[in-house]
Amino acid sequence: MTVYWCELAWLGGPTAEAGVVVEVEDGRIATVTGGTLRPPPGARRLEGLTLPGLANAHSHAFQRALRGRTQHGSGSFWTWREQMYRVADGLDPESYLALARATYAEMALAGVTAVGEFHYLHHGAGGVPYGDPNEMSRALIAAAAEAGVRITLIDACYLHGGIGEPPAGPQRRFSDGSAEAWAERVEALRDEESVRIGAAIHSVRAVDPGAAAIVAGWALESDRPLHAHVSEQPAENHACLEAYGRTPTALLAEADAISARFTAVHATHLDDGDVTLLGGGGACCCVCPTTERDLADGIGQMRRLAEAGASLSLGSDSHAVIDLFEEARAVELDERLASGERGHNTAAALLRAASEDGHACLGWPDAGRIASEARADLVTVSLAGVRLAGTEPENAVQAVVFAAGAPDVRHVLVDGREIVRDGRHGTIDVARELHEAILRAAA
Question: For the domain 54-361, what is the CATH code?
């Protein structure tokens, strides 16, 4: 039994509670007791605001190598995509392991205790499978273990280079040839204590309706999370309407993809019928505001989706930055810019998206909250730095959501194991490994 005394802790309500004692045993929270104004003898002090572990629900780890390299000149998502393909085409299992390990360690420093890796870089040069067809998948799983975070490997089916088009160039590395071959490959992957296997329909551009139904059926039969990129760009909607006479959301609904296990990533450009389908199906919508603004994707309407019945999660996607506090507040602040009104999403709701609802959409329903029997994931944010100095306890939750940054994270526990202490990763020199891995990947 390890005992932690939290100066302040967020237990899910609108404000933080003072003097919370958390007892941890065998990687789980055994008891939570509030109102303890002095630390019990032998308790570990956690000064600041302690939160449940954060979930980064949408990641493409290899895209961390693009940070700062795509900001020259003008363009769009589609021109950025060509730069992304060049990085993807140069990776092998060894270099991808190094880059993903450093990227996941950066996430740990930011308070992320579980990552959803939306994985489609499956095969070798020209699309030739490795001896183990899941070698790239296993590199990602190993990277997460070495960084100390849990992973949901969201294995993406990717068959076409565009609607009705064969994969070309680097896209050939993404394709299994058919949905049946995709399912056969993924069947060889197994859940572990810190690993979950999920499924993804990459997008309606890359997966035709018949194949989408096969992927959705596989996820249903195996009770797996199912994710898909949905309506990230208007061009995607226009192409889908022209080819099929339906929006991407409607097409996925016909493939029986939309349910409480489904997560629509981005969901930026939706019509009223799309919102009704996602909300009525109890789906989750994962927004990635720092990537969406970096790529000029647009601004989603998360309050509207929440009112329709959808839950919300957050991801750093292309890792323009890795900071779940920035993702959380951007949901609200971007909607303020678009609407001219404040107060669409409360601080507590945004924290819930970053923690409990994010873990749930990744297949970790026992994580993301500070409660008995939950996984012992704790993230302590210092209130003593320049960003948060002067924060009063009654405003701590709002201050952290709307002003904190990843460097304010001081301590991180994952399943009861201390991964970050005093702002430093316990086993990885994160800056050095990022530097070396990115130079290698971007060469």
Answer: 3.20.20.140
Q: How many CA atoms lie within 13 A of 175 on its CB side?
A: 21
> What tens digit of pLDDT does each residue of 89-141 get?
999 999 999 999 999 999 999 999 999 999 999 999 999 999 999 999 999 99
pTM score: 0.97
The residue from 58, 119, 160, 266 that is catalytic is: 266
pLDDT in tens, 284-323: 999 999 999 999 999 988 999 999 999 999 999 999 999 9
What CATH number was assigned to the domain covering residues 2-52+368-425? 2.30.40.10
HSE toward the beta carbon, residue 157, CA cutoff 13 A:
32
Provide the residue ranges of all domains of the chain, joining segments of one domain with +.
2-52+368-425, 54-361
176 is catalytic: no
Q: Which listed residue (317, 357, 377, 408) is catalytic?
A: 317
317 is catalytic: yes
